Amino acid sequence: MQYWLIKSDPDTWDWKDQVKVGTKGTSWDGVRNYQARNNMVVMKKGDYCLFYHSQSDPGVQGVVKVIKEAYRDHTADDDDRWKMVDVAVVKAFKKPVSLKEIKSKSGLKNMGLLKQGRLSVNPVTEKEFSIILELGGIKL
DNA sequence: GCCAACGTTGGC
DNA sequence: GCCAACGTTGGC
């Protein structure tokens, strides 16, 4: 089992949209970065991902899981390089965990999110994952 | 809207 | 293969 953090610009796709599609989930398309793609390719069905809003009021909104492993991103025209996975909602946080909180928590100082702010798909350790769930006020 | 960080492109 | 120019992301 691996843990991840995936970012979405809420103007394009936000947590509410994700909740709306429910257990059917949605394809996480549009990723055009090699590192992010490489991370998606190694995702396994059932892996948990923290759903993160970038831009205005950045923070983790809840937990989703991988329901379909990497396959060709159909939004990439005839460019075969790009992949996507499908994710579905697991649970919403009682309270979103802001970037500020993440920065101020000592156990989270080494998160990929902080080290490489621009990468939209980041690996998260089990420990980091559990700290963030706690901050979000939920248990799985 | 600005800017830093980083990725990508293209000329050589 | 190097590097400058340019584009994009994301925090503030």
Key terms for this structure?
alpha+beta; globular; ph1033 like fold; 6 strands; 140 residues; DNA-binding; six-stranded mixed sheet; 26% helix; single chain
SSE blueprint and pairings:
Layout: E1 3-8, H1 15-21, E2 26-27, H2 34-41, E3 48-53, E4 59-72, E5 83-98, H3 99-104, H4 112-115, E6 121-124, H5 126-136
Parallel strand pairs: 1-3
Antiparallel strand pairs: 1-6, 2-5, 3-4, 4-5
This protein binds a DNA duplex (12 and 12 nucleotides) through loops.
Number of domains: 1
Order of helices and strands: EHEHEEEHHEH
The CATH superfamily turns out to be: ph1033 like domains
Percentage of residues in DSSP E strands: 25-35%
Q: Return the CATH architecture.
A: Roll
Indicate the percent of residues in helices: 25-40%
What class, by secondary structure content?
alpha+beta
Biggest sheet strand line-up: 2-5-4-3-1-6
Query: What is the CA-atom radius of gyration, in angstroms?
Result: 14 Å
CATH structural fold name: ph1033 like fold
Low-confidence stretches: none
Q: Give a count of the beta strands, DSSP E runs of length 2 or more.
A: 6
Sheet having the most strands = 6 strands, mixed
Average of the residue pLDDT scores: 95
Shape: globular
C-alpha end-to-end distance: 14 Å
